[in-house]
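We modelled the chain as a single entity of 243 amino acids. Its sequence is:
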Amino acid sequence: MLEFAILGLLHESPMHGYELRKELVAKLGAIRAAISYGSLYPTLRRLQAANLITEATGTPANPEEVPVLTSRRGRVVYTITAEGKERFAELIGQAGPETYDDTGFGVHFAFFARTDQATRLRILEGRRRKIEERREGLRDVLSRAASRLDAYTLELQRHGLDACEREVRWLEELIANERSGRSPEGRLSEASRPPEASRPATDSPPADPVPPPAGTDSPPAGTHSPDDSPTPPGRSRNEQERP
């Protein structure tokens, strides 16, 4: 998978060793820990021996980005060859079981923008089957052995099950988008657009007060009519009005 990632990056542009390492970290994101970067330069030498890439010692495109103490091999510029481009086209078209596991799926997904739709769909469906199998295995463990697990092991199993269920939902959404011809970018841009029609109006002016009917002598707000004067304690209203 490291060979595939290196060829994919060099297919975009030549890079020196330091920049190639940095781009691998950025491109692979969360799955970069699954790839040993100690094998980066051995893989580069192997690709050179197979005439898939070539090297030339020269000034990088952005020399100020290279740390001063970078070794000579970190400053070597690598370029993909015609044979390397053919090899990358072969690798990017693969959709076998090796593209369904964690590392293989992550590397292939990183180059989905350059993969044809049919291959993307096969990889996504294969990955979904694999995660569904993993999910069912965790459910089986929780149903049969939950009583024998300590609280922390049980919580770890539940966490794994939750992660599987979230990934299955994510994959199903991606598969639906692929079948409808929509890209994740279009889906995200629509999802992030504020719903103008459903937004409540907060700047509406207050309603005008309803005027009293004509011919009535309504007291001003905050005043009371004579009939509404309070009655002293211990006396009824009739006693108060008696002369």
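As a brief sanity check on the tokenised model: The longest helix spans residues 151-180. Confidence is low (pLDDT under 50) at residues 191-203.
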